[in-house]
Amino acid sequence: MANPIAFVPKLTDPQFQLQRQVSDAPRRHADALLAAYDLLDEAHRQGVLDALQGAMGARDTIAGAVANYTAQPEGVNAMRNLLALGKLFSTMNPEPLSRLSKAAYAALEEHQVESKPPTLWQLFKRLGHPDTRRGLSLMIGILTAFGRASWPGRGPSL
Fold first, then answer.
1. pLDDT tens digits, residue range 90-123?
2. Are 101 and 95 contacting, i.e. CB atoms less than 8 angstroms apart?
3. How far is residue 134's CA from residue 115's CA, in Å, rounded to a whole number?
4. Helical residues (DSSP H) of the chain, grouped into ranges
5. What is the pTM of this model?
């Protein structure tokens, strides 16, 4: 008959395992630790850590002020407006907004180069440009939507 194999489980100390992982971490994650130290140092120099410490010390005061404000009708309206704006921005495609911001910045730079304001005739000539008409059409569409939304009982459709 076969003899049973004697099995003696190897005892491991969980504390030793954790200590070994902690001692190996600086070698394995040196770049990440240096970046974290740089970030922490910059936050300290800019006063961010002091502001966070102050906010943590005044958390009861801050929480009380927020609770008082949100209990008022203005606070409720502000929260509802923030949620509505968040919903609006979450439905928008970011690519056209990015193009719009770049175009607005370019237009601002062009405007700053002008030494004197354009004449009325120059402005009138600009109205003939297809991009100007396209922009006016967009703005008129937005104004139409604002007007439609301002009437009680009118829905968002035409």
1. 998 999 889 989 999 998 998 888 889 889 999 9
2. no
3. 27
4. 14-28, 30-46, 48-57, 59-71, 73-91, 94-113, 120-126, 130-150
5. 0.46
Q: How far apart are CA 6 and CA 107, in angstroms?
A: 84
SS3 148: helix
Give domain limits for the chain.
Answer: 65-115, 116-147
Q: Closest by alpha carbon to 96, among 134, 129, 133, 123?
A: 134
Token representation of residue 136:
């006016």
For 26-81, write each residue's pLDDT tens digit.
888 899 989 999 999 999 999 999 999 998 989 899 899 989 988 899 999 999 99
What is the SS3 string spanning 22-44? Answer: HHHHHHHCHHHHHHHHHHHHHHH
